[in-house]
Request: fold
Amino acid sequence: MSGKTFADQVVEFNKKLNFTGILPNDFQVLNPYLDNPETLAVMQKFYQKYYNDSSQRKFMIGINPSRHGAGVTGVPFTDTKRLETVCGIKMESSHTHEISSVFIYDMIAAYGGAEEFYKDFYINSPFPLAIVRKSKGSWINANYYDDKELFNDVKDFMIDSLKKHISLGLDTSEVFVLGKKNADFISKLNAEAKLFDQMTVLDHPRYIQQYKSKEKDLYIDKYILSLKKINAKS
Reply:
C-alpha cells in the first residue's frame, strides 16, 4: 500500500465494491459505482480534494448508504446539494436532498468546516452499499439490521468491509458509531472480530432531523464535544 494516499485507497476500495451474497426475498443491494459512471467521477473528486494525504483519521460509522445520499453521490451522508454547495463538486445526472446530510453538514460547519473535519475523520458504513426492500410494490430504503436473516446474510461482508476500512490507516482506539441500534450490532461484530478498543455512540442524524429538530443545536454540541475531546488528546 506504500506510496498510495488515503484518497487512492478509498477510491480503489469503492471501485472494487461488489456484494455477491444471497439476500432474503424482497431485499436488494444497489451499487452506485456500477449504476452511474458520474458517481465514480464525483466520488474520486471528493476524496482527492479532502483525503489527498497519508494522515491517520478517526472512524465514524453510519448504518448503510441511503438511496438519496451516498447511494447517489458515493460519498457518505452527502447528497448532491451538499456536495455542490459545501464541497464545490457538481453532479449533473442527479439532484438529491437527504435529511441526514443536512445534519451532518451543519455539524461539520460547527466543527470548523469540511476541510477541517475531513482532515480528522473518515465516515463510512459497515455495509457500504445501499439496501432497498420491496414494500407495497415499490422499493424503499432498508437498514442492514431490519431483518434477522438479512443481517446474517451480510454479516461476514460487513466484517470484511470494516477490516478494509481500518487498513486505510484509521485509528482503532475509539470509533464513533451513529445510531443506538446500529451500535448494538456493531458491538456484536466487534466482539467477534476485535476491531475497535472503544465505541462512542452518537444519535443518528436521521433520528435527530426527524424527531428532535428543535433541539438540533444541542445535538450538534454533543457531537462536537465528543469529537473534539478526542482530538485534544492526540
Remarks:
- Residues 85 and 192 are 41 Å apart (CA to CA).
- The mean pLDDT is 93.
